[in-house]
Write a structure and sequence with these properties.
globular, two-stranded parallel sheet, alpha/beta, about 350 residues, about 45% helix, 13 helices, Rossmann fold
């Protein structure tokens, strides 16, 4: 499968040599280390001969699989894996205290929009409290860098998931630290990742020669997983502090076109492919944005990475409202209570 053909653009290039040199003496902790982005970060860092990789994930199978991958890549790789919930501050602190990582990549998140719409307490708790717990410990143990993996769904969010990620972005923007540089990286759908549209389409085409699509006009931004990971790693080299990076994903791809192109690669002609439109699900948008109106793009040394600059900081009282949100999702609050609190923190949230 030629990913470039399906995305309609060339994949981004990065300075692999500089990345390898930089990470060769850094201990790196990855939350969500068994997920699509987290596990690929681990594999790339293993190839870069990173001296120690610490993986945190709450999925036993995912954690096991990435451990096996790293052992195949480099049997000598020093690594530790922890089956731990990022919301569990005492357990997570034991990991930070033991390893004292130089760099933290926070990729742990509940990312499926329809799932988080239904399971809003667990989704917001994991995405917001998990981020707060992890970054607070990164600051306490003086990690040099902390990077939050965010999403284009955080921009003018319509979903609980996107809003929870925007709250996480705002929390990072509210922090200052003399020891730790804090970054956020936003990008769109990861091509062929677990639970994404591409493996679903492949399964549907192979079994039924038909696909389900929400809307004929639906578009999404896509990135190849390895491409995204190398760009995430490079942001650490070029970033200063409290910056939001956006990775150049080219033009948004029409989901209908993606389905047709994928079908052709699988030997199914456009005439043979049946498409059933299901309508947008709660929280879904026809198209995603990549920046807020008040954010201004600034070029970096890599033309595929831009910094979004904004003079707007979280509103006064942000910390109080954040604590109230965490209290709500840590109990048995109603959807109405959680949504109302999310709207207080992120006024542009329009469910």
């Amino acid at each position: 499968m030629d990913v470039s053909d399906l995305l309609g653009r060339e994949l981004a290039s990065v300075d692999v040599e500089a990345i390898t040199r930089f990470f060769r003496d850094k201990k790196v902790l990855i939350t969500g280390g068994g997920g699509s982005i987290g596990s690929e970060l681990a594999r790339v860092l293993c190839r870069c001969k990173c001296p120690e990789i610490i993986l945190v994930d709450f999925s036993e199978n995912n954690l096991y699989e990435v451990q096996m991958d790293l052992q195949l890549i480099s049997p000598q790789q020093k690594m530790s894996a922890y089956l731990t919930d990022v919301c569990d501050a005492p357990e997570l602190e034991k990991i930070f205290e033991k390893h004292r990582p130089d760099i933290v990549f926070h990729a742990a998140a509940h990312k499926q929009v329809p799932v988080v719409e239904t399971h809003f307490l667990q989704g917001v708790r994991n995405n917001v409290l998990g981020t707060k717990t992890t970054v607070d410990l990164a600051l306490k143990y003086k990690a040099e860098y902390f990077t939050l993996i965010s999403t284009d769904k955080a921009i003018h969010p319509k979903s609980v998931m996107g809003t929870s990620k925007r709250v996480s972005e705002l929390y990072l923007q509210s922090l200052t630290s003399p020891a730790t540089r804090l970054f956020t990286v936003r990008f769109g759908n990861v091509f062929n990742s677990r639970g994404s549209v591409v493996p679903l389409f492949r399964k549907q085409i192979a079994e039924t020669r038909s696909v389900t699509i929400t809307d004929p006009e639906a578009t999404r931004y896509f990135m190849d997983c390895t491409e995204a990971v190398f760009l995430i790693l490079q942001t650490v080299l070029i970033g200063r502090d409290s910056e939001i990076f956006i990775l150049d994903m080219g033009k948004p791809v029409k989901i209908v076109d993606l389905a047709h192109n994928l079908a052709q690669l699988m030997g199914v002609s456009p005439q043979e492919l049946s498409i059933r439109y299901t309508g947008l699900r709660p929280g879904e948008k026809l198209a995603e944005l990549i920046q807020l109106e008040e954010e201004v793009a600034q070029e970096t040394l890599n033309p595929k990475i831009k910094i979004w600059k904004t003079s707007n900081k979280p509103a006064s009282g942000f910390q109080k409202e954040l604590n109230k949100l965490i209290e709500l999702v840590s109990g048995s609050s109603t959807r109405e209570e959680v949504v109302a609190q999310l709207k207080k923190i992120v006024p542009e949230y329009k469910p």
